Amino acid sequence: MSREEEIFVPNGWVMLVLNIAVLLAGIGLIVGFIVSAAAVQNKQELPNFYFLGWGVFVIVVAVFLLNGHFTLQPNEARVLMLFGAYRGTVRQSGFHWTNPLNTKQRISLRARNFNGEILKVNDKRGNPIEIAAVVVWQVRDTAQASFDVQSYEAYVKIQSESAVRHLANRFCYDHGDENESTLRSSVDEVSGMLQAELQERVGKAGVVIEEARLTHLAYAPEIAGVMLRRQQAEAIIDARQKIVHGAVTMVQMALKDLAENQVVELDEERKASMVSNLLVVLCGEREAQPVVNAGTLYT
């Protein structure tokens, strides 16, 4: 695996002054040639072509050296290569100069967001679900990002989708076994596992995962209606359980208070009738309508 080596290159402003001086020197040699040519024009002598040759050569060198200047913004880097060999990475922002023969590949070190597409996968129980995630990442090692993978941006995208698919297969959408984590209920745990798996996958590309979270989670359209009715039924059952438990508790409290305060003495049959009536009142979905008994319980 490649390893990044940070290097420091000459200051661009200092080299700019030197390069301009070289360019002016070349122009001065050209001017000297023109002056010498004008001086010997009437004497039928040849001008000094050394001034012309050296002037052209110096100007070409100056233009060549000027191509070595480059700038870096904050959170940017340049990977320098000379004839296919890695020379190092410049991370310090500012105006710099390097060997013009070096190829300079710009790499952004800023944090980036990858908003994944909605994927249709099966959860742990085989139910088809739709899932998507957002990944926050940035380049950590520019050498690995440049040389160890073909395209680190495409690599992060493909590995992110693969990790989301694998994660969905490991968890149930909801209603797992007792104390079992699910995609819907254990958001923090699922996000942590997704981030860890992604980091393991994209580490070879010199990328660090800052955050990974699910942004979309739903049943697939073909089973969404059935699962919605199932959730509604389970919600009704849970609500009924709480209602019945509360009603039984209230009936026990009523019988206990009646007995302790000696309000009325009830035999077992009257207790059963009172319990039945109270449960109807407390557990019914509609408001109970009282029926007046003109006689006694036994007639």
List keywords for this structure.
single chain; 299 residues; Tetrahydropterin Synthase, Chain A; 4-stranded antiparallel sheet; 3-stranded antiparallel sheet; 9 strands; 20% strand; rod-shaped
Give the topology:
Layout: H1 12-39, H2 49-66, E1 69-72, E2 76-82, E3 85-90, E4 94-97, E5 103-108, E6 112-115, E7 119-122, E8 128-139, H3 142-147, H4 152-170, H5 187-202, E9 207-219, H6 221-260, H7 268-283
Antiparallel strand pairs: 1-4, 2-3, 2-5, 6-8, 7-8, 8-9
Helix pairs in contact: 1-2, 4-5, 6-7
Q: Could you characterize what this model shows?
A:
The chain is rod-shaped and about 150 Å long. It has helices spanning 12-39, 49-66, 142-147, 152-170, 187-202, 221-260, 268-283; strands at residues 69-72, 76-82, 85-90, 94-97, 103-108, 112-115, 119-122, 128-139, 207-219. The protein folds into three domains: 12-107, no CATH class; 112-219, 2-Layer Sandwich (Tetrahydropterin Synthase, Chain A), CATH 3.30.479; 234-283, no CATH class. Helix 1 (12-39) runs antiparallel to helix 2 (49-66), helix 4 (152-170) crosses helix 5 and helix 6 (221-260) runs antiparallel to helix 7 (268-283). The protein has seven helices and nine strands, in the order H-H-E-E-E-E-E-E-E-E-H-H-H-E-H-H. It has 299 residues and is an alpha+beta fold.
Which spans have pLDDT < 50 for at least 5 consecutive residues? none
What is the alpha-carbon Rg in Å?
Answer: 41 Å
Q: Assembly state here?
A: single chain
| CATH superfamily grouping of the largest domain | Band 7 domain
Q: What best-fitting shape do the alpha-carbon axes yield? A: rod-shaped
Quick one: CATH class of the largest domain? Alpha Beta
Give the proportion of residues in helices.
Answer: 40-55%
Percent of residues in β-strands: 15-25%
Q: Tell me what the CATH architecture of the largest domain is.
A: 2-Layer Sandwich
Order of helices and strands: HHEEEEEEEEHHHEHH
Could you name the CATH topology of the largest domain? Tetrahydropterin Synthase, Chain A
Major sheet summary line: 4 strands, antiparallel
Number of strands: 9
Number of domains: 3
